[in-house]
Amino acid sequence: MSQPAAPERTGRESTADESSSSGQADEATDESGDDAVAASGAPVESTGPDTAAAARSAAENADEYTFDDLAVVMGTYNEEAAIASVLEDIDRVTDGRASVVCVDGSDDRTPEIAREHGARVIEQEPQGYGVAVHAALEAADRPVVVTTDCDDTYPMEQLPEFLDAINDGYDVVSGDRITPGADAMPMFNRQGNRAFALLASALMVERVHDTTTGMRAYRREVIDEITWTENTGLSAELLIRPLMRDYDVLEVPIDYDERAGETKLDPLAGGAAIAKSILRVGIEERLR
Asked: Which has the least CB within 10 A, 1, 29, 137, 143?
């Protein structure tokens, strides 16, 4: 994985001469101001190094992303048993400041429940995982975009950690379910995901641990600058293309819970489609 780049700072930086002349002017102002206050008999408030450090910290934090800059997106399909819990977790962790987009193809109460919890719902005919998630990514209206699944398997409590990593300079932050064990995942799926990661690692000549995780954070420009082509294998593509184009990517270990509701993906047919996507995307990126 690439090392993090330094976060961009948009504020104007003063030169040494400017700082020196500014400091002298401030000293003169402070002295005359202090004399005036002392003459009036009012107490003089000291501005020591702690106050200056706090001011510098506030200026630096002003350039960092917050939950107000975060959009959480997902494709939803007949997840009425889980969607409320997922949206409540996002709202609790982000203090209601993140926007949420659901692209939905359900024939149950999923879209109704999502709207009741404040999500923006875009309804479409069911066309597969990748089509829904791609549409949700394009609809996101914030500079940092987090994908997740709507089955209550992913830890929204780690959203602050993902946002911190983006502020540290990473372009993509990918949740790694496999390294911590993923004990709640069926064994066949767990072994399949390990195999997908080994296949992708061989194609990229770079070790990754979880290519099919549904929880990732992206800088908006990563989503906009790459053309995404896959459907069932979109989750793998969303990791492979950025890595092979030298974006800074970080894998973060995450807990993985047992899903609420029934799975919609056939493990054999879905697994074959994901493997084909990994091969196709990896070869395409090698030939770029």
From this structure: 29
Confidence category of residue 22, pLDDT binned at 50, 70, 90: very low
**36 located within any domain:** no
Can you list the positions of beta strands (E) in the chain? 70-76, 99-104, 120-123, 144-147, 172-176, 216-219, 249-253
- Is the distance from CB of 218 to CB of 171 less than 8 angstroms? yes
Question: What residues are paired with 218 via a beta bridge?
Answer: 145, 172
Q: Does 53 fall in a domain?
A: no
Number of domains comprising the chain: 1
Q: What is the pTM of this model?
A: 0.79
Q: 139-142: which pairs have CB atoms within 8 A and are 24 or more residues apart? A: 139/73, 139/101, 139/103, 140/71, 140/73, 140/99, 140/101, 140/220, 140/223, 141/71, 141/99, 141/101, 142/68, 142/69, 142/70, 142/71, 142/98, 142/99, 142/220
Exposed/middle/buried for residue 31 (C-beta within 10 Å: 0-12, 13-18, 19+): exposed
Nearest to 118 by CA among 95, 142, 151, 96: 96
Domain with residue 260: its CATH number is 3.90.550.10
Check whether 48 has a pLDDT greater than 60: no
pLDDT digits 0-9 by tens, 110-145:
999 999 999 999 999 999 999 999 999 999 999 999
Residue 266 located in a structural domain: yes
Q: Is residue 216 part of a domain?
A: yes
